[in-house]
Write a structure and sequence with these properties.
Elements lengths: L10 E7 L8 H10 L5 E8 L5 H11 L2 E6 L5 H11 L4 E4 L11 H9 L4 E5 L6 E2 L5 H18 L11 E4 H8 L9 H11 L4 E5 L1 E2 L11 H18 L5
Parallel strand pairs: 1-2, 1-4, 2-3, 5-8, 6-9
Antiparallel strand pairs: 4-7, 5-7
């Protein structure tokens, strides 16, 4: 690993949260891992209008950890939260991941290595050779997930095995280009940012990750699948309107 710039931030890790009082303690594990690494990092937590005790817990955690907290009152959706965090990030590389640790921060070093070899965007995948799924989602969720991937590939013209794995890394320049143009605020944002990255001719690679399903997932089927399908169509409409230039 080449990066180590003691006067700058090498890696920014963005974690969106909404009503996560039961899992917010996982930030300690992320922070512990980052502090053990030979690079300078920042941990940005975006509180997406939580109604529970998430913000109170975050304030307490920030006393013992160096958290950068972004918070607003109205829930805007995961896509909006990720966008706010990525645009705030100051590191050379920007990663967003989920607070449920469905993908462990221990995957970070190999993502950095891929960036250092010339990639602009590195996507975590549960679908390619080398990936390991510790515990699966229900049959119907996996079926609907595969359907969404097929629809995304068809509508957006992208060859990606896993659009929605919440573990993606960007160079600073790629991050600014992509998230500065992002329009969607909810579940369809994953597909949108990859569509934008592809249209910007950024170098994109998928890497296999170890992944485990969270029983507290906030994805609601079929409602969110239908909403995401409509957002795929909106991406195409945005493109034809010239909104991604």
């Amino acid at each position: 690993m080449k990066i180590k710039h003691m006067n700058n931030i090498d890696l920014s890790v963005v974690v969106p949260v909404f009503n996560e009082e039961k899992r917010i303690k996982n930030l300690k594990e992320i922070d512990k891992f980052l502090q053990s690494q030979p690079f300078v990092s920042e941990l940005i937590v975006v509180n997406d209008g939580s109604l529970d005790k998430t913000m109170d817990i975050l304030k307490k955690l920030s006393i013992k950890t160096q958290l950068v907290i972004i918070s607003y009152k109205q829930n805007r959706g995961k896509g909006h939260a990720v966008k706010m965090g990525m645009l705030k990030a100051r590191g050379l590389y920007h990663l967003f991941m989920d607070v449920d640790l469905s993908t462990s921060p221990h995957e970070i070093p190999k993502f950095i290595q891929a960036i250092e070899k010339g990639q602009d965007v590195v996507i975590g995948s549960r679908k390619i050779r080398g990936a390991k799924v510790i515990n699966h989602q229900s049959f119907i969720r996996e079926l609907l997930g595969r359907s969404f991937i097929a629809l995304s590939s068809l509508i957006l013209g992208l060859s990606v095995s896993d659009f929605t794995c919440g573990f993606k890394m960007f160079t600073k320049d790629a991050s600014r280009k992509v998230f500065g143009l992002q329009k969607l605020s909810r579940w369809g944002f994953d597909s949108e940012i990859l569509f934008i990255a592809n249209k910007k001719n950024l170098r994109i690679i998928e890497l296999p990750v170890e992944w485990k399903n969270s029983r507290l997932s906030k994805v609601k089927f079929p409602k969110d699948l239908i909403g995401s399908f409509l957002e795929l169509l909106q991406i195409r409409i945005n493109y034809y309107k010239g909104n991604y230039k």
